[in-house]
Amino acid sequence: MLGKTKRRMSRALQVLIGSDLKSGSMREIPDLTKEEVEEAKSFFPMDKFFIFGHARSGTTLLARLVRLHPEVHCNWQAHFFTRDPLLQGLVNDEEIRSWFSRRSNRWNRGSDFSPIALRAVSDFMLERDARQAGKSVVGDKSPNSLLNGKSVELLHQIYPDGRLIYIVRDGRDTVISHRFQSFVDKVDHLSGEDAKIRGEFIQDPQPFMDGRRSIFTEEGLRNAVVSWVKNLVETDSRGQELFGESYFPLRYEDLLDNPAEEMNRVWVFLGVDQDVEDLGRKISVEMSQNPDADWQQEAAGQIAQVLQKGRHGSWRDVLTDKDKQIFEQIAGHMLTEWGYDSGVPQGKLN
Length: 350
Fold this sequence. Notes:
By secondary structure, the chain is of the alpha/beta class. It is built from 17 helices and five strands.
């Protein structure tokens, strides 16, 4: 009952925030039939999974942890279904479409060969890497915050038999992390006002780190919050509807607080053996490392040195009172639904 209510709320929210799950200029690709799925698995038998999440939600940490299991391999950023040109880009050209579907091509068995070709390409890429690693279950992690629910639909077209893991992080920490990432490696794309904030942060970070000054413009924050809500609403809704029991949502904060317990849940979902020696120690070692923080320190030490990478709850210090109110105004319902407290100061927005 709760699941149905949640799906109804999600659909309603899609309308409120202007979601369009069918947007884009991609041509329609037929879904794989059950027979075609079974045929594909006869050539490429490994079970496949995909990790989605908003950018800066812990997708990389989850990928690093999940592949500690001796049966599971995971790599990242293939963006098969999450960023242009997409896997589908291989068959978007009209001449390719004609070649794959024309009647005189007796190899296509009278139908559009496109989805079979796409499945074969992605299966080969995934299993090629997994076989080299000596693993039997393989997945890709690619943040889906550019296409949101559309990514889930595209995935289901090619992998109706696949598994989808969706990691959610408190949106306030997510947008802060994403903002600082833009300060580090997207400097050339910052607006004049954003670049000014970045420069002032470098000169004197303390007012920005204790909530006296905002690291956002108001418009930028509002856009970031809407993006987080859109990703959460669409991905969770479509994940439940299309994948059912093959959809697994989890929270980044729970992964940080109880990594062994959460990873055991993930591995159960993937159907691999739980009785594996030394996994707990390996998880502890992996959790103690942070390659992303090391890279940011190297790329922009002036900014990275004042940040505590991966910590949850940093929004309490970094966001101004007005920032918190804006977030509550736009996303308070989603924070509550996913078990996050508001911590919003009393008062009205100016």
